[in-house]
Amino acid sequence: MSKWGLIGLAWGDVMASLAVAKTKGIQNIIYIGPYPEIASFIEHQDFISKVEYRNYSFKDRYDFMKYFTRMANQFDIDDQIRFLHREFYLNSICPLETVESCQCDWSSTKYPLEIPKELKITDNKREEAEKFIAEINHPYILIQSQSLHTNKENSHWPHWEEFIDYVIANNKNKKIVFVGEFGDDDKTAENIIDLRGKTSSVEVLFHLAEHSDLTITVPNSLFHWCNIKNINALNLCHDSFHQINPFYRYMNSLKCKHVFHKEGLDRAISIYENQEDIDISTLGCGEWIPKNLFLKQYDLKARISDTQLGAVDFALSEFKNHNWFFNDDFPIQYIWNGLKYIPKENKNIYCSILMLKEVDNILSFCNDKFVSCNRKLDINENFVLFSKYGNLSKHLKSLPYIKNLVLINFIGNNQDINKTLEEHFIELPGSTDKVKLYTNIFVGHILQQ
């Protein structure tokens, strides 16, 4: 008997939920929500065979959203399915045992949060958008400053109005097209076209964005569409959209830029005036990894949320004048984080063969900060070895000749490693329970010989 996938909530969550359905190979979908156009959108996708729609009113949405948010948080999923199956009489579609959750995984513990890049717009919504584009008949900037589904009261980026005024005044000879649910009477300048409240679906906005020179919006389904279609876009974040948010973590288009809630008007103006693709070498660790290594969020969360990062950062700063050797599976984000300590003059970074691919990804964007990437351990230069504690067993014969060590995941239960450390090294200030810094007592004398 065919499986049915159960999906709820609004556009962004539904788009991400379709990735779960695709991964599970489920082609029959039950969508429950107040938006019939979403059911039509789901049915239009090539990997979906059949859609059944059950609705509740928008004003009652909070009575039912809680069941889908629990599913998204991987909380008692079977209980939520049983309730929804009974409440919406889904037995007329399929028996309970054939229903599975395809709700996107906010925790990213079972399924990575992502949106299929091959999603497509329904034909009638594309035609509607094309009529608007014909009426505009000029290059344009698309602005959606409000979204019923993503913005709570007083959560907006606080400089929206000033920024919109700046864009209108500095429009670069482009039309300004406003879209969204709300319409005001104050957007009546000659270069403004106000389509707020005049479009039938967010799909129309998707197509308008595809033909815009720039889309300015909030972190909603329109921005997600810009990301998967690699459209030039600027996201002015509300206060709950940040680097921990799972929907931020999956975004990897270099054409999509963010102004976070805490950032000021100058940041938005600077991005608006310089609309080139993101320069990867300017990104911090949390931004750079998803945009370059294309890690799934559940992998990235483990890497970025590591409590050892601060201690390793201290070690990198302490040993910034040394050459660095990173052993095997040393976490890649630590290496990226450490590049800020490398001066532009000659500097060597060493990595093991197993790290070759990811380290080369990093170094290729930082070629003004390093000279070579030597992958031999038996080097005579002064260097510090960054390693997981357990990996030292591979290098016991070399350890007496290594001047400095930074060890993570320190367990301390390997007798051979501990004996070598006790005989040749002293622990340095700055060590923590799981990150240890050592310097060799004798290596200077050994190297001179």
Structure overview:
The structure is a single chain. This protein is α/β, with parallel strands linked by helices and 449 residues long. The chain contains 17 helices and 17 strands. The protein folds into three domains: 4-101, no CATH class; 123-281, Glycogen Phosphorylase B (Rossmann fold), CATH 3.40.50.2000; 306-448, 3-Layer(aba) Sandwich (Rossmann fold). 35% of the residues lie in helices and 16% in strands. The strands form three sheets. A seven-stranded mixed sheet has the order 13-12-11-14-15-17-16. A six-stranded parallel sheet has the order 7-6-5-8-9-10, sandwiched between helices. The N and C termini lie far apart (77 Å).
What is the strand and helix layout of this fold?
Elements: E1 4-8, H1 11-24, E2 28-32, H2 36-43, E3 50-54, H3 61-72, H4 77-87, E4 99-101, H5 123-136, E5 140-143, H6 160-169, E6 175-178, E7 192-194, H7 202-210, E8 214-217, H8 221-228, E9 233-236, H9 246-249, E10 256-259, H10 265-273, H11 285-292, H12 297-304, H13 309-318, E11 323-326, H14 332-338, E12 348-351, H15 356-363, E13 372-374, E14 383-388, E15 404-408, H16 415-424, E16 425-427, E17 435-440, H17 443-448
